């Protein structure tokens, strides 16, 4: 067995080392399965993050879950289909509105980004980022600079810019997901990271 | 219309990475087909259990995901006590770098000579000196270093900073010390070398340890720090009582306590908890405020995990976990005596630790319980008169001794 009740109990108490062990034990299967089925590594990565975020958020109840593995896979499956559905809608939307709509999404004038609550949440998420990530995010995502340009401005390597923006996007996604029941746009943030 | 078998087959082809382009296209079509939703979802769940070569995410990505998850949660619950706690200590903690004459002397006798000015400059007799010596030893909070150097903490001016034996000691406020390791001591490992901080009866200290953790050391207590923390652990030893706010880092923080029949280790990574380990109490208690700790019974190697608001009571017979009364167990930090259905026995133990008195002729009155919440600033005589009203007893104070008259 890859896990035991003691490990789950420790996670339920908020033990991050135990959570890491749980993550190590289960994320490869979640990642591989979703990657093979969707043929999209970005979706698979997001599913892993969203799934384990849900585990962490519900950790106090872990003790009461009888079949953890089944519970975990059900969550992962539901998240996968959710993302696929949103992705389909989104691609459709892009096809209808054209690529320029992306810019409008980011300038907060279109689509469900108009949602005030979501805007507030997004701003909060950005504010919570460490300074380096915040700078990187703003230059890349709000000022539409290229990665190389950002690297020059911040005087770091393009790899560092990539690392910082990856972490920023993940943190924003996790924060928004943790604080809103349904997060249509943020679920799709990885699309943006691919386009910009 | 495809049947479940067909969809299962396509799933498997993908899982084994053997699908053709046509099969991939077929599956994509089914995945998006609302009328097949139930079957597809069922197959997907089965796919998780199918045997397949597995890949992990790159380590960087794993770390990023975990960081994102941990940072997403709303700030950790603020423990209400800690907001009001120690407010008085934050008053004007001015960090002046004064160079003080070294009032640290290994030789106690020299210390006493320096101290004679306390008696209004009058020359003190040898007998008096002995008395001062006794009272210094008994009443001062001290920090004893590896080499035997003893700092008498009340004699240090606020702001004083002393660097010795690899330890930087700064008195940041009344009854507060900031402790840091000097860089060189971080790279030196000396076994069985310690620094010891002691509080006398009636005096509490707030310590900031070299790792940033905060320890509120109650009266009549002792905290032993190693010469340096290692790369993998932060080990301290406690006798008496302390409230710990341990800063999270990768090194485990361990508090060791022992007395006859009881040997305990409390291990944590980052959390807030209280340990009471007085040798004259029947038991050691560990109260968890937030996070998680495990309490090791070193006698039988058993480990107990504590959840927030739980208390582990360790008697020579073993460890019991129960629900904690945080207000009661941590009242001492707020400078309050908190007696709730307390037996006389426990009441006088707490009083004698705070007022430095000894009770004589204590009767056994297990039926009578005391309920009271009283500031620790109260005069001993006033506190005793409150207690007299509960128990059918009278106290008589004679010097440092309190006699109980039934």
Automatic annotation (TrEMBL), chain A:
Looking at the record, the residues that make up the RNA polymerase sigma-70 region domain are 22-85
Q: Which UniProt keywords apply?
A: Sigma factor, Transcription, Transcription regulation
Please indicate which superkingdom the organism of origin belongs to: Bacteria
- Where do the RNA polymerase sigma factor 70 region 4 type domain residues begin and end? 120-171
Q: Which InterPro entries match?
A: RNA_pol_sigma-70-like, RNA_pol_sigma-70_dom, RNA_pol_sigma70_bacteroid, RNA_pol_sigma70_r2, RNA_pol_sigma70_r4_t2, RNA_pol_sigma_r2, RNA_pol_sigma_r3/r4-like, WH-like_DNA-bd_sf
The entry assigns this protein to a family as follows: Belongs to the sigma-70 factor family. ECF subfamily.
Q: What is this protein called?
A: RNA polymerase sigma-70 factor
Automatic annotation (TrEMBL), chain B:
Query: In its keyword annotation, does this UniProt entry include Flavoprotein?
Result: no
Checking InterPro entries in the record gives:
FecR, FecR_C, Ferrdict_sens_TM
Q: Which residues cross the membrane?
A: 85-104
Which positions fall inside the Protein FecR C-terminal domain?
A: 337-404
Per UniProt, residues of the FecR protein domain are: 196-294
Keywords of this protein's UniProt record, alphabetized?
Membrane, Transmembrane, Transmembrane helix
Answer whether the UniProt record assigns the keyword ATP-binding to this protein.
no
| Full protein name | FecR family protein
Q: Which organism is it from?
A: Sphingobacterium bovistauri
């Amino acid at each position: 067995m890859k896990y035991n009740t003691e490990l789950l109990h420790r996670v339920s108490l908020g033990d991050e080392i135990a959570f890491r062990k749980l993550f190590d034990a289960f994320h490869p299967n979640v990642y591989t399965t979703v990657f093979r089925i969707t043929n999209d590594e970005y979706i698979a990565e997001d599913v892993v993050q969203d799934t384990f975020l849900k585990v962490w958020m519900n950790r106090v109840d872990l003790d009461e879950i009888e079949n953890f593995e089944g519970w975990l896979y059900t969550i992962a499956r539901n998240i996968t289909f959710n993302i696929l559905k949103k992705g389909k809608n989104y691609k459709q939307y892009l096809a209808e509105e054209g690529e320029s709509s992306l810019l409008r999404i980011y300038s907060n004038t279109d689509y469900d980004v108009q949602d005030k609550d979501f805007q507030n949440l997004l701003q909060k998420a950005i504010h919570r980022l460490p300074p380096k990530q915040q700078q990187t995010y703003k230059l890349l995502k709000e000022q539409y600079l290229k990665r190389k340009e950002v690297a020059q401005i911040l005087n770091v390597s393009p790899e560092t810019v990539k690392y910082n923006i990856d972490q920023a996007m993940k943190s924003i996604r996790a924060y928004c997901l943790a604080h809103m029941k349904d997060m249509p746009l943020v679920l799709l943030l990885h699309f943006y990271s691919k386009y910009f | 219309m495809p049947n479940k078998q067909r969809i299962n087959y396509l799933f498997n082809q993908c899982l084994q990475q053997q699908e053709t382009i046509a099969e991939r296209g077929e599956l994509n079509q089914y995945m998006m087909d609302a009328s097949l939703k139930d079957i597809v979802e069922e197959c997907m769940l089965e796919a998780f259990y199918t045997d397949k070569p597995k890949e992990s995410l790159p380590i960087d990505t794993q770390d990023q995901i975990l960081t994102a998850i941990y940072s997403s949660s709303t700030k950790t619950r603020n423990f209400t006590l800690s907001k009001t706690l120690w407010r008085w200590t934050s008053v004007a903690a001015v960090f002046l770098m004064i160079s003080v004459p070294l009032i640290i002397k290994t030789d106690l006798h020299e210390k006493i000579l320096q101290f004679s000015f306390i008696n209004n400059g009058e020359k003190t007799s040898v007998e008096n000196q002995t008395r001062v010596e006794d009272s210094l030893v008994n009443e001062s909070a001290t920090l004893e270093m590896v080499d035997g150097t003893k700092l008498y903490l009340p004699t240090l001016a606020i702001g004083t900073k002393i660097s010795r034996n690899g330890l930087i000691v700064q008195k940041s406020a009344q009854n507060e010390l900031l402790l840091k390791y000097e860089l060189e001591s971080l790279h030196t490992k000396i076994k069985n070398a310690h620094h010891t901080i002691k509080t006398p009866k009636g005096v509490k200290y707030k310590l900031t340890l070299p790792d940033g953790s905060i320890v509120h050391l109650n009266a009549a207590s002792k905290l032993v720090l190693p010469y340096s923390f290692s790369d993998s652990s932060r080990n301290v030893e406690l006798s008496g009582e302390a409230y710990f706010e341990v800063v999270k880092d990768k090194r485990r923080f361990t508090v060791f306590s022992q007395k006859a029949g009881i040997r305990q280790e409390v291990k944590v990574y980052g959390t807030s908890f209280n340990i009471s380990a007085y040798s004259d109490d029947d038991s050691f208690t560990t109260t968890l405020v937030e996070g998680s700790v495990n309490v090791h019974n070193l006698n039988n190697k058993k480990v107990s995990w504590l959840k927030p608001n739980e208390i582990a009571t360790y008697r020579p017979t073993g460890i019991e976990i129960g629900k904690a009364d945080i207000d009661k167990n941590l009242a001492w930090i707020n400078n309050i005596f908190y007696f709730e259905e307390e037996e006389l026995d426990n009441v006088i133990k707490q009083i004698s630790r705070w007022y430095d008195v000894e009770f004589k002729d204590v009767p056994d009155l297990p039926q009578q319980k005391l309920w009271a919440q009283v500031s620790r600033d109260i005069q001993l005589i006033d506190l005793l008169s409150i207690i007299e009203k509960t128990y059918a007893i009278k106290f008589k104070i004679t010097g440092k001794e309190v006699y109980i008259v039934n």
